[in-house]
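Our preliminary data section would be incomplete without showing what the modeling component actually yields. Below, a chain of 411 amino acids is followed by its predicted structure, encoded as tokens that our downstream tools consume directly.
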Amino acid sequence: MENSKLELSKLDNSNLVFYKSDRDFFREGYFHLSILREETPVLIDPNLVQFWIHQLNVEILTIQDIEPPNKTELERIFTNGNLLPLSEIGDYNLYFATSGSTGEPKLICKSDREIGSEVEFLIPFLQKKYNRSFFNSEFLVTIPIFHVYGFIWGFALPLELRSKILDSESLSSMRRILKEFSPEVWITVPSILSSLMELESLTNVNQGSNPNSEYQPLIVSSGSAMSDETLTKLIENNFKNIIEIYGSTETGGIGFREPSESKWIEKFACHKIQSIDDCLVIQSKFIHPTIALDDSGHFHTQDIIELDGDKFLYKGRKDRIVKIHAKRIHLDIVEKEIQSMEGVLDVIVVPTESNGDLEISALIHKNNSIEDLDWSHIPKYFLPTRIKYLDELPYLPNGKKDYEKTKRFFD
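Predicted structure:
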């Protein structure tokens, strides 16, 4: 955003209010309060407050800055002590301030129409697929709500299902929740699942009020593909219901895959998709009208895919293709090649510069029991020039790899 005033002038609603959107902002009803007061909330990552102040030259409020709800507002926000479903609070618009993990930082608009359409689709989709209603259940939510995946799956959906949200702010709190409760649904990301698998076997998790029954939660993951090692450990622990959601802030959920069954992503039935220049193009009612669409009402993503009817293979981002030594190299493919090496638990690959030339650099989390990795099957032009080994790789709160922070390891 080179000109923040120009960008703000393009936004739909003049009654914008920028909020540091920590968990209390949602949990204590301040999002609902903002809608009741006819504001258009802009949800800001608490870790990026200074970044957005610099980008937009605006004041960002915390809940301490907000006038508390009066009695009438409290009665409209809560019913029987529970937050009202978003479908019952009226019309609204909101903006998600994206982190820029797949491009320039953006403010993406959603309204009650797009949010409601996605939630209305997901409820019967889940009920049919898993033969369970999920009403009045428990959702373990390990991700922030200021991202669209967390907002839909960890906030709007459980509220609509009149379900209890078990909010986990850390791996230790997640472990405590799993020892006390038996949440029917986990809303999480691969990096958290991977860390949990490394710490303990989940066969020993207390099953709360159902100690004699087989604990089979629905594990929902998004942000990036789950590693084979994490998936294998989940299956070894007899977790059968695992689903990965594929989508973006602009599009909402596009499709899903069950990683234990297939590498192919199946589109949600309510969408129309096609491949143009090898990139995914979608028509969806989950997309706000302000998003740039073509003349046919389609949104052109930068995701390279292989399309087969209603299914597709995700092959990486078009903007992750770089030219190194006159050869076009897709960094997502380099990551997959390195990830397939024995002993590699996780990897992030970025382009870095040395003496004016681009080169490949990699952060790798490897199994400590393997001293040296075998690079013999990796193509020569995929080999990283610089490698650093870490026990924990940088991820954004929404589960996506933090490429900008990765680059700073090689400055």
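The chain has three domains: 1-97, 110-319, 325-408. Confidence is low (pLDDT under 50) at residues 1-6. Preliminary results of this kind motivate Aim 1 of the renewal.
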